[in-house]
C-alpha cells in the first residue's frame, strides 16, 4: 500500500499540508557512504518554484536523516528521512473541503475511506513524491558504487516531440534547460508552449523517457516480477502517469519478428545484441544492454477556469483552481522517474544476490 | 517471483515440457460455486490449435482441481489446479540446447540461473499462462457474483487498427472470429494479414484492449498499489507485452487539462463523470466508471528463417525456427489479459474489505 | 525485517542514541478517534525512570503524530509517530565502541552488517520498543471499538511465581504496584528481590502473562499464520524474550487427551468450552474463549561487575556495566507485550474481513 | 496464510481426504542436486504406520516432482512436489460431518469459513505436514552443501523426561528407536507409556528438542524477524504445538545475569562463547554457536472414549474416536520440526546474501 520494494523497501508517509512527509528505507545495504548534499540536490530537482515553468509554491524540501546512518555510513538498519512541511497555507484549500475537483482524487478518497484530509489533496498530492526522490537518491548512491547510471528526460510536451532516440541525444544537456529536454531546440519550443498554456490557466501533458545504463545481466524475475513489469508498476505509481512502454513499446506491434529480433553477437567476449528493440530486457530479465522506457503523463487536473462539479452531498457546484499549480508536470517528474527506476533496480540487485 | 496478488494470491509452477504446469490459489473466498466447465472453457480460449491463425501444437489443457473445493464449493483453503503436459515432443528442442535464440529468454535465464530447462523455453514459455487463465477463471466466477464483468479483445494487429472505441463496438461479437476483434471487417483483414505473415514464417505484433465493467468505487491503494499500476504490472507480466496504457494513455499527453478533466455529474443519485479520460481510476482508486486499457504485444520471437546468433560457449552460430509457433500472439492473449485483470480486481476487492 | 503485520502493518525505525525513533502504521482503519493522551499514557508505562525498580534513565518519550490523522480521526493513510531522543549521553558508550559486551547484540550486529552504531546498543536497544508501544496503543484504540481487551502482567520474577491463574486474580490491581503483578503479596516479594539484585549490580529474569478477552471466533489462518504462532512470533520479537507458550503450554504435555480436551457446550445459544486448555485457539483459529499466554524473559545482559570478553580485533578484554540499566525487564515489558498482542489481533481482524 | 518464508518460500495445498496434497517451493537456489531418495526417506520418517506406537493408517506418501528440476538439478524455478492421497476411507468420517470434535479445528473452521471439508479434518489434518517435510528435505539438501546440520529428537513424553542436555547425548542413536529419543533407557520407558496410553484409547503430549549445527554468524533480522522468533513461529505453526523456547528458555528466568551471560572467547581466531544460554542467537542474529530449542506438543485430541460435544446446529451430542490415530504425536513430529527449522535457516541464508 504505502511500501514499495521487497528487499530495498521504502515506506512513505505524510500529507501535503500535514506536519511533515518522509520515508523509511528498510534494507539499504550497510556501509554505504551517505552523501546528504546529493540527496538534497535531487530534492531540489523536484521541488516547486525551481523555474518559471513550474508551480511557484515555495517549498524548501529540507531533508533530515533521523536514523540508519552512523558516522556518515548506512548501518543496514532503517534509514528514515523527514521533510517538514512549511508553506502550508491551509486556508487556501478550505473552499474545496466539500467539493470534488474534476479528475482529482477527492471523490475516490472520500468514497474509499469515508473521510479525507482535503488540504491540498492530502495524501494524494504529488508532494508525497518528494519522499520517493529522497529514497531514490539513496538508491542512486548505491547503484553508483556498482557502475549503474539512471537518467531521465522530457521527450514530449503536448504535441512537441523530441524526435531523436536517446542514443543520438547528448544527455549531459538535460539539466541545462528548465524543461529537462536535451534537444535544446525542442526544449525552447516546449518552454514556450508551457508558458502559453500557463497564461491560459490551463495545463498540458507530456512524456518522460528513462534510460538505465550499466545494468548487469540477470536482474528481474521471470514470471510475475519481470524487470520491465516492476518498472512499469513503479512509473504508473507516479501521480498523473497514464502509460508505460519499454524497448520498442507500442510502435513495436507494427514490426515483423524478423525485424524486431535482436541478434546476439560476441563482442570481445561479451555477448551483446546488434539492435535493442528488447529494451535491455528479455523474458523479464536484464540482458546487459541499455534499458529504456517511456512514461506518459496526463495534463494536471488543477486548472484556473471554472469547471462544473458536484459536492460531497451530491449537489451540483463549480470549482476553480487558484494559483500555484504546475502547467505541465513532466519537468518535475524527471527526478521522480529516475528515483522510482533507481528503487526498482536497487531492489532487484539485492534480490539477485540470493542466487549468488 | 512466481506469486501474484496479496489476498487473492496465486502461485504458478511448471515448465513447457516438464510433467505438468499448474497454479495454487491462496485466498479464494469460501462458498464460491466452482464451475469446472467454465474454467475449462477459458482454457480452451487460450489453448494452441484452436484456429488456423494460431500455433498448431496440440495441447488439450485439461485441468484437474486437486484441493480447496468440497461438494462443488470453494472452502477457503488453497485451491490447486493441475494441467498435465501431453504433447511434449522434447526432441524438437534438443537443437537449441546450446544456442541462444534471438529475443528469447534463453540467454538471460542461462546467465541468471547458471542453467536452464531449454525444452520449449522451459519456464519462459507462454505455456505458463495456462495456469494464469485457470486461476483467472476462478477470479471471474467470484467477480460475476458481484456483477463485475471483464472483457478483452484484439484492437490492433500490425498496422491494422480497430478505429472505434470500445463503447461503439458490439463486444458480444468478439468470439465470433478467431482473431477476437469485434469489428468484423477489420477482423477479416487481420486474419488475412496473419495468414500472410505465417506463410512467410514470420510474426507480427498487436494490441489487446481490456474493459472492466461494474467495478465498485474505492478499489485501489493510493500510493504504491494504485489500481491502474497493478493492472499495468499484471499486463506487463504477460509474455511479449511491451507497453500498457489506461484511459487517455499516451494520446492524453497532447490534451489540455480543460479537455481532459472528467466533469462529475449526479445521475439519479449516483455520481458519474460526463467523459472518462481517467479510464475509471482517479488517484489510483476506481471511481465506478468503466476501466479500460490497452496492452501492446511484440511480434513473437520464434520465426522460421535462419538467424545469426551465439551459442552457450560464445561462438557464432545460426538458429532457425521449426513449425508450430504463433504468427501473432494477440488472439490467444485475449483470455490471458482477461485472466490477469480478473486476478487484480478480485485481489483489490478483498483488500478493500479490510476497510469495511 | 523492520515491518510487522500484513494489513495493519507497522514499520519502526531509530537507534537508541540517534536523533529519534518512531513508527509508521500502514493500514490503520480510517475514522478511528485518535486519543493522544491514551497513547502517551501507554508510553509512560514503558518509559525508563517510572519507579525505583527500573532503570533510572530519564526519557520523556514524548510522541508526536506527523501524518495520517485529520481533525482527530485516522484517515486510513500512513500514521506516523515520532519520538525524539533526548537523554543521549553518547559519551557513556564510547568505552564499548571496540568491545563486544557478553550476551548483547554487539558481536552479531558487527558480523552481520560489518559495522554498527554502538551507542547504547543502537538499533538493538530496547528503546526501539517504544515505537511498538505507540503503534500498539493505536491498535488498542481500534480493538476497544470492537470490545476486545488486552491485559498483561508479571507472573514470575526469578523463582517468585504468582501461583494463581489469571482467572483468580484481580487484574484491575496490576498497575497498583510498580512490578505489575496483581497478586500484591507476591508483588512485594518481587520488588524486594529486584531491589536486592539491583544492589548487587546484577539482573534477573521473569515471565509476563498476557490475556486477550472478547476476541471473536474465526481469527487466525490455519496453516502458517496460526493465531498463536503469530502471537508467539510477536512475543519472541521482543528483546530478551526466550520462550512462549499458550493455553496449557509446556505443562500440557504431561496431560492425557481425555483431561486436556475442552468440551463444547451450548451456553444460551453461544458455543463455549467447559475448560480452556486450548487457550482460546483451536487449529490456529480463535474459538471465542479467552486467549492467554506466557512469555519468558531472560535476565538483562548489562551487569555492573566486570566480565571477560573480546574486542573487535579479537583480543581478550574486560567489560563492566555503568549505571542506569534495568535489574529486571519484566515490569516494563508488560506494556510491550500488550502492544505486540494488540498489533497481532488488529491485523487478524482486518485479515478476517476479507472473508466477509 | 498457506505460504511460509520470504526468499525460500513454500506454499502448501491439499486436504486430508482430497485428491492430493503438495507443495511448491519458490526460490530454491538453482543448480542444487535433488536427491529424490533422500526426500522420500524424510517422508517415511513422518508417515503413518511406521511403527507400533504411531497411527496404523496406511499412507505411502509417495512424492513426485512435477516441475523445477531438470537433469537432476534444481533450475531456480518453482519446484512442485505432489503426494497423492490413497488411503482415503472417506466414509470413516461421515459420522462427524455435523459434529464438532472437542479440541479439534472443526468448530473454528466452520465459523471462520462458513463451511468445511470435514473428511479427516480436511485442511486442518496433520497430513498437510507431509508437504512441509518434502519441502524441508529440499532445504536440508541445500543446507548440507553449506555444512549446516539440523537434528531433532523426542526429549519428553508425558512426565518422562530425557534429563541430559543434547550435548551429552549420542544423537546418532535417535533413529534407533521408534520413539526417536537418543537416551535409549528413557526411550524404552516412553514406548511403554505410549503403549499403555494407546490401550486406554487415550493420548499423551511430549516435547521435541531441535539442534542446528554449523549455522554461520549473522543470520536473522534484528527487530521483527529475529532468527529465534522465526523458528518459534515455524514450530508453533506445527499442529498441536503449544510452546516454544530456545537457549535457556523458561528456566533461564530464574538465573542472574551474571550466571546467564555467555562470555566471549577467542578460540584459535574464532570468536565463540564459553557457555551457550543464548542458544546460538543474540539480538535475534545467529552467533555461530549451536542453536537449540524445545517445542511442546499437547496430547492428540482424538481419543476413543465417548466425549460430550455439540453439533453444527448447537444441539448437545456425543463424539467418540475411531481407530488409527496417534497416541502420542512427538515421534512423528521429529521430522516435521527438522523440516520447519531447515526451511527457516534456508530462508535466512538467502536473506543474508542480500548484504553480501
Number of domains of chain A: 1
Q: Secondary-structure element order of chain A, as H and E?
A: EEEHEEEEHHEEHEHEHEEEEEEEH
* Strand order in the largest sheet of chain A: 1-2-3-7-4
The CATH homologous superfamily of chain A is called Chorismate synthase AroC
In the CATH hierarchy, the architecture of chain A is 4-Layer Sandwich
Mass-distribution shape of chain A? globular
List the helices and strands and how they pair.
The structure is a homotetramer of 356-residue chains.
Chain A: E1 3-4, E2 9-14, E3 20-26, H1 36-46, E4 63-67, E5 69-70, E6 73-74, E7 79-84, H2 106-113, H3 129-144, E8 149-157, E9 160-161, H4 184-199, E10 206-213, H5 227-236, E11 241-246, H6 257-260, E12 264-267, E13 270-273, E14 281-282, E15 285-286, E16 291-297, E17 307-310, E18 316-319, H7 330-353
Antiparallel strand pairs in A: 1-2, 2-3, 3-7, 4-7, 5-6, 8-9, 8-10, 10-16, 11-16, 12-13, 14-15, 17-18
Helix pairs in contact in A: 1-3, 1-7, 3-7, 5-7
Summary?
The structure is a homotetramer of 356-residue chains. Chain A is α+β, with helices and mostly antiparallel strands and 356 residues long.
Please provide a written account of the structure:
Four copies of one chain form a homotetramer. By secondary structure, the first copy, chain A, is an alpha+beta fold. Chain A has a single domain (3-355), classed as Chorismate synthase AroC (Chorismate synthase, AroC fold), CATH 3.60.150. Chain A is built from seven helices and 18 strands. In chain A, the strands form six sheets. In chain A, strands 1-2-3-7-4 form a five-stranded antiparallel β-sheet, covered by helices on one side. Chain A has a five-stranded antiparallel β-sheet with strand order 9-8-10-16-11. In chain A, strand 2 (9-14) and strand 3 form a beta hairpin. In chain A, helix 1 crosses helix 3 (129-144), helix 1 (36-46) crosses helix 7 and helix 3 (129-144) packs across helix 7 (330-353). Chains A and B meet through strand 1, helix 2, helix 5, strand 11 and helix 6 of A and strand 1, helix 2, helix 5, strand 11 and helix 6 of B. Strand 11 of chain C pairs antiparallel with strand 11 (241-246) of chain D.
Amino acid at each position: 500500500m504505502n511500501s514499495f520494494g521487497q528487499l530495498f523497501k521504502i515506506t512513505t508517509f505524510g500529507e501535503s499540508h500535514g506536519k511533515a512527509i518522509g520515508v523509511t528505507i528498510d534494507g539499504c545495504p550497510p556501509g554505504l557512504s551517505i552523501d546528504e548534499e546529493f540527496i538534497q540536490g535531487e530534492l531540489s530537482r523536484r521541488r516547486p518554484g525551481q523555474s518559471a515553468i513550474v508551480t511557484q509554491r515555495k517549498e524548501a524540501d529540507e531533508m533530515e536523516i533521523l536514523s540508519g546512518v552512523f558516522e556518515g555510513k548506512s548501518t543496514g538498519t532503517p534509514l528514515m528521512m523527514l521533510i517538514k512541511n512549511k508553506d502550508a497555507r491551509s486556508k487556501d484549500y478550505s473552499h474545496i473541503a466539500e467539493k470534488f475537483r474534476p479528475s482529482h482524487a477527492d471523490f475516490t478518497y472520500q468514497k474509499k475511506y469515508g473521510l479525507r484530509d482535503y488540504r491540498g489533496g492530502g495524501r494524494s498530492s504529488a508532494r508525497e513524491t518528494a519522499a520517493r526522490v529522497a529514497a531514490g537518491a539513496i538508491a542512486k548512491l548505491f547503484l553508483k558504487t556498482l557502475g549503474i547510471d539512471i537518467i531521465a528526460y522530457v521527450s514530449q510536451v503536448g504535441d512537441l516531440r523530441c524526435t531523436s532516440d536517446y542514443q543520438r541525444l547528448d544527455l549531459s544537456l538535460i539539466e541545462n534547460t528548465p524543461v529537462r529536454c536535451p534537444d535544446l531546440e525542442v526544449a525552447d519550443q516546449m518552454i514556450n508552449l508551457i508558458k502559453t498554456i500557463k497564461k491560459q490557466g490551463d495545463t498540458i501533458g507530456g512524456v518522460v523517457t528513462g534510460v538505465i545504463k550499466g545494468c548487469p545481466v540477470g536482474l528481474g524475475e521471470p514470471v510475475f516480477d519481470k524487470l520491465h513489469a516492476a518498472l512499469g508498476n513503479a512509473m504508473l505509481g507516479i501521480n498523473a502517469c497514464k502509460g508505460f512502454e519499454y524497448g520498442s513499446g507500442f510502435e513495436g506491434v507494427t514490426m515483423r519478428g524478423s525485424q524486431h529480433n535482436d541478434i546476439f553477437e560476441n563482442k570481445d567476449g561479451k555477448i551483446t545484441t546488434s539492435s535493442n528493440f528488447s529494451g535491455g530486457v528479455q523474458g523479464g530479465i536484464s540482458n546487459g544492454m541499455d534499458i529504456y522506457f517511456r512514461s506518459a503523463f496526463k495534463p494536471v487536473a488543477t486548472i484556473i477556469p471554472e469547471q462544473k462539479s458536484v459536492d460531497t452531498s451530491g449537489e451540483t457546484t463549480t470549482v476553480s483552481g487558484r494559483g500555484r499549480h504546475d502547467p505541465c508536470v513532466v519537468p518535475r517528474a524527471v527526478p521522480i522517474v529516475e528515483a522510482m527506476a533507481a528503487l526498482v533496480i536497487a531492489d532487484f540487485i539485492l534480490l539477485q544476490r540470493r542466487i549468488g
